[in-house]
Amino acid sequence: MRNHAEELRALQDTLYFIGGKWRLPVINAICNGHRRFREIERSIPGITTRMLSKELKEMEMNNLVTRTVYADTPVLVEYAPTAYCRSFGTIIQEMIRWGRQHRKTILKGRADKP
Amino acid sequence: MRNHAEELRALQDTLYFIGGKWRLPVINAICNGHRRFREIERSIPGITTRMLSKELKEMEMNNLVTRTVYADTPVLVEYAPTAYCRSFGTIIQEMIRWGRQHRKTILKGRADKP
């Protein structure tokens, strides 16, 4: 028998960890090869500098990204995904798949109406 | 080449649709066979009557559940998942898997510390 309480706890742990609308888009951007702050920022329309900064700090604390500072002029900062960050790959891919299907359904629904 | 903007849009559509911390737990409860309001409520610790009521209304409007009223005494109301509701199955399963793994990692991390 499935243990509903244990499943629910695992699901809620994940939802809590993902928390908010920016975490997964930022993880996706970094896993897709965006490395610098401005690069990541530009790749996610609507995110503010403040929100991205907050996300990246939390993600560094949670071992989702590593932050490397190159003592260049000007100083170069690069973010890289950890294995932990990449562990969201399947969830993100499933969400992309769902979102595409949802868009098709919505557009079809509109087309079906007289 | 992957279209980052299109992927991001699909991901954000899904995140928007899932919106908030209760939608997926409620979907999961209904897909797991909970049918009556009090059943669903009891299966999700922490959810308030008000929040569940709001979720179910929105889910009915969004074609995620059907609501059937049986003219009994007292009136019996049952919620059932639509195919659309079940389309979240893979995302939910992946999130449960991730949450379990995360818990193991956290517990292991604690055990490793002196």
TrEMBL record, chains A, B:
The keyword RNA-binding does not apply. PROSITE patterns: HTH_HXLR (PS51118). One of its GO terms (molecular function) is DNA binding. Residues 5-107 form the HTH hxlR-type domain. Pfam families: HxlR. This is Transcriptional regulator, HxlR family. It comes from Niabella drilacis (strain DSM 25811 / CCM 8410 / CCUG 62505 / LMG 26954 / E90). Keywords: DNA-binding, Transcription, Transcription regulation. InterPro entries: HTH_HxlR, WH-like_DNA-bd_sf, WH_DNA-bd_sf.
